[in-house]
Design brief:
The structure holds two protein chains of two kinds.
Chain A (H helix, E strand, L loop, with lengths): L8 E2 L2 E2 L18 E3 L14 E4 L5 H26 L27 H5 L11 E2 L6 E8 L8 E12 L17 H10 L14 H14 L3 E5 L2 H12 L5 E5 L4 H10 L2 E5 L4 H14 L11 E6 L11 H11 L2 E5 L14 H4 L9 E5 L9 E5 L1 H10 L1 H5 L5 H15 L6 H23 L5 E2 L4 E7 L1 H13 L2 E2 L1 E3 L9 E6 L6 H18 L25
Parallel strand pairs in A: 7-17, 9-10, 9-11, 11-12, 12-13
Antiparallel strand pairs in A: 1-2, 3-4, 4-15, 6-7, 8-14, 13-14, 16-19, 18-19
Helix pairs in contact in A: 3-12, 4-12, 5-6, 7-8, 12-13, 13-15, 14-15
Chain B lengths: L1 H18 L2 H19 L13 H10 L21 E2 L5 E4 L2 E4 L13 H14 L12 E2 H14 L3 E5 L2 H12 L5 E5 L4 H10 L2 E5 L4 H17 L1 H6 L2 E6 L11 H11 L2 E5 L14 H5 L8 E5 L9 E5 L1 H4 L2 H4 L1 H4 L6 H16 L5 H10 L1
Parallel strand pairs in B: 6-7, 6-8, 8-9, 9-10
Antiparallel strand pairs in B: 1-2, 2-3, 5-11, 10-11
Helix pairs in contact in B: 4-15, 5-15, 6-7, 8-10
Classes of the chains: A alpha/beta, B alpha/beta.
Amino acid sequence: MANSGGGAVCNGKIYSHKKWDGSQNGNCTKNGIVKEVQQNGKPHFYEKPVVESFEEAPLHVMVFTYMGYGIGTLFGYLRDFLRNSGIEKCNAAVEREEQKDFVPLYQNFENFYTRNIYMRIRDNWNRPICSAPGALFDVMERVSDDYNWTFRFTGRIIKDVINMGSYNFLGLAVRYDESMRTVKDVLEEYGVGVASTRHEMGTLNKHKELEDLVAQFLNVEAAMVFGMGFATNSMNIPALVGKGCLILSDELNHASLVLGARLSGATIRIFKHNNMQSLEKLLRDAVIYGQPRTRRAWKKILIMVEGVYSMEGSIVNLPQIVALKKKYKAYLYIDEAHSIGSVGPTGRGVVEFFGMDPQDVDVFMGTFTKSFGAAGGYIAGRKDLVDYLRVHSHSAVYATSMSPPIAEQIIRSMKFIMGLDGTTEGLKRVQQLAKNTRYFRQRLNEMGFIIYGNEESPVVPLLLYMPGKVAAFARHLLNRKIGVVVVGFPATPLAEARARFCISAAHTREMLDTVLEALDEMGDLLHLKYSRNKKSARPELYDETSFELDD
Amino acid sequence: MATAAEQWVLVEMVQALYEAPAYHLILEGILILWIIRLLFSKTYKLQERSDLTVKEKEELIEEWQPEPLVPPISKDHPALNYNIVSGPPSHSIVVNGKECINFASFNFLGLLDNPRVKAAALASLKKYGVGTCGPRGFYGTFDVHLDLEDRLAKFMKTEEAIIYSYGFATIASAIPAYSKRGDIVFVDRAACFAIQKGLQASRSNIKLFEHNDMADLERLLKEQEIEDQKNPRKARVTRRFIVVEGLYMNTGTICPLPELVQLKYKYKARIFLEESLSFGVLGEHGRGVTEHFGINIDDIDLISANMENALASIGGFCCGRSFVIDHQRLSGQGYCFSASLPPLLAAAAIEALNIMEENPGITFEPRKSDCRLH
């Protein structure tokens, strides 16, 4: 696991080693990490060093953020007091009269954050739209007369809002056009529902076709598809591991992975996000000391990671994890919900991104919601794994199978990406996505925002920190007809609220430029440009073939 | 001089010993005995960390062999040789190339191949495409979803409804949103798998009562009441829930809802009713088991159903009062962390609901055929 030596300086960014003693103090500033692709003797596919950065904010920002939450909490207490004593009218729904003497359904303090802080800025979430979630979409305008307790629709529609929020990486979620004719035919022939589980009458020939195609796409032996991405994790992890097994799961894993791990009954240990030393230490301790107290050996060790982490934009350090897994004989489960279709030269996911062998990963899991414009999930891998899941998966026995037109849409999109429909359009889209991602990230870095994550990941979190700025950011941008997603506590740590952009292959250069201009102005208006990395004064040259000197 | 002083102190001491109160002496005596015990007992370390050498550790790592990831499955397991259905799974179904009459799908109202439902889905496909590309909170809320939630709430005569994108996930996310560690859930022994998973995820105390046996449930509730009286402070914060199904998937019987409502008010537990199989089938208009028994729908705290049986679509919904349902919008895992229902499925469900409202007689068909079979 060699890293390149010394502190190389490139384009003003300093690359340095991470500390090898494994301890991560809160005080150390994390700089860019250089990872060199390690192939165990195989030729390098990606010669470029991969850069991830998680810059820390200046101290005054953190102070103000906590102050903001503190003031919000104080006001929250005041308002709660006013509401409870009847001075202020309470807009929240209340329990039935007949059930007033039941044990209260919610504890007061559980909802404190929701009532007092979330409620003030609630209009930035759950915004309804009324068109396909493509690069441009139509948002329904809604206003609130009572400070976000209730909303009403004015009836107006804000048309052609630039969509920076939906997971539409390859631009395949569009309104109907002739290329979707097969979906229409399948809908008319098969109908919409299935009304049966996989073990009963729910396996249609469409499902079989789809599963063969997914296996071909990922270059593995077999695959199985399920109706919902979330349910794929929560129903199949219990089938793979049980009591007496160990799950090593990344700190920032998605709720579905956490739920699946909990439902399985195995012991769960968490390692720090993308931190290989932390993972190695846990692996060593697990193999050497066995189960706690009884010292029996673990039956299996399963490492659960994601391909691209949706809140951080980081890409998993796959080469090192595979090396660790081979050394300690663990199994690797990788959730490619955000990385399938969007990362890698032909869109096959993180395994292709790092140029590795699909045989190295034991369980591939992914969803069709993000890059394929449909719904559902899959698990792929060796044939005996998939056969076992066909028999023992909870979903196969108890849950309905995927709807036929959705399966057809996935088949169509996959063929499009793979080039099986006879054109190279799919490949062009994957490359366009990569180009858009690089351009967007470079421009944002230049402007001075703090961006998290890997340079190549199409998920771009822009840090906002303060709850007030979160609301102002989202509202101002909607006024300029740009739709963004902002995330706060509890999906992110309390002090690290962020805006998350999802780049799409359908975004044209003009759209990106419009968004970047707006972001520039927002950054100046709200003082969001916290980054302390030095930028060169001269503007960068992109793919300009000629440039003129201004007079 | 010194010895005299010592002796004098000794005499004082002995005198003090005689004059000291009894409890003081006893306490001192116990302390002395305790010290003697501690001195002579074996020492133990809190953590058994044997100091292995590096070489031994490497050997352990080399030697350890995990189980295979999946145990081998015999090749002729029935689930591996699927029945492949080609063509639509409606009343007559083509299985493995042969045409059969379909008694296996949950297609209660026969709406799976209804042309109006297909036309509505097609119209939605033309406008919205297929996927929603995001969870409800992040631009995944379409006007179709809001429409469907409205229609379902109006149909079931409740205040609010919430839609999930998968039937299984509906009740499995609804239960853990309300019932946490330390709460008590009384559930029927024949509850379906989705309910079991929801209960497992909630980490609450589960008390099973015999299938449809109200006397058994009352016994458990009485026992719980006695427990409560022993510890009233804890009882004040422990929520109680009764989870039942309208029509049980495992046995096909209907739950005795009127008695359950009586027990609810007597013992102050909330009722969660899972109506996947009874929605669209029981009751005058298909409103489920509450209509079948003529019970006020507000008496049931939460009704959850999936749209995959009667409504011939995919997904599920929960309905009830806003006080109860609104909580799931932030704490229902399958709602917040999962992409929303594709609009064409929602449009199909709305159209199916329209058909159900227009011909209330449609819900009588399955029951008539049922009587004939029995």
